[in-house]
Amino acid sequence: MAKRPRRRSDQTLVCGWCSREFLPATRGRTPKWCSQVCRQRAWEQRRAARSGLVAVEIVQQVVEVEKVVQKEVVKRVEVPVRPSRHNWPALLAELTSQLDRGLVYDRDLPELATHLSGVLQVLERRPGYQRLMARSRSPWRR
Ligand SMILES: [Zn+2]
């Protein structure tokens, strides 16, 4: 069962027996009576009503409650992603384009050149790469 929400603390209720206003506790069941005495009197009257002796006035009260609303906040966070084999051609093409359009600072060029020559060195060492390049260069394949 859901927890009963806290009532706003500044609101008064009207006693179902004596009609006086009273401040209820913020927690628990919404009280119908201002006191134990009124509660007892009302109970006696209800008992009498059940036996057909008196009429009972049923009062419905409106109570405002404080409801805790949990708010979900969606935040966009950029996460560096390690590029995979599918991304490299487009990334390198983008690098080429940015270099060509002068979008890369001169001071960053030496470091880029170092890494690019490293890429080429590693490529040359790969047997698979050598095989593919040899095949595409061989004249009898065309
Ligand atoms: Zn009362």
Ends: how far apart? 78 Å
Largest sheet descriptor: 2 strands, antiparallel
Q: How many extended strands?
A: 4
Radius of gyration over all CA atoms, rounded:
41 Å
Weakly predicted, low-confidence segments: none
What ligands does this structure carry? zinc ion
The number of distinct structural domains comes to 2
Beta-sheet strand percentage?
Answer: 5-15%
User: What integer is the average pLDDT?
Assistant: 82
The dominant shape is: rod-shaped
Number of helices: 4
Structural class based on helices, strands and sheet pairing = mainly alpha
SSE series:
EEEHEHHH
Residues in helices, as a percent range: 25-40%
Biggest β-sheet: strands ordered side by side in the sheet: 1-4
Fold blueprint:
Blueprint: E1 6-7, E2 13-14, E3 21-22, H1 36-50, E4 65-66, H2 88-100, H3 109-125, H4 127-137
Antiparallel strand pairs: 1-4, 2-3
The chain binds zinc ion.
Zinc ion binds at residues 15, 17-18, 20, 33-35, 38.
Notes on the protein architecture:
The protein has 142 residues and is mostly helical. The chain has two domains: 6-66, no CATH class; 88-141, no CATH class. The chain is built from four helices and four strands. The chain has helices at residues 36-50, 88-100, 109-125, 127-137; strands at residues 6-7, 13-14, 21-22, 65-66. A two-stranded antiparallel sheet has the order 1-4. The protein has a two-stranded antiparallel ribbon with strand order 2-3. The protein is rod-shaped. It binds zinc ion.
List keywords for this structure.
39% helix, mainly alpha, 4 strands, rod-shaped, 4 helices, 142 residues, binds zinc ion, two-stranded antiparallel ribbon
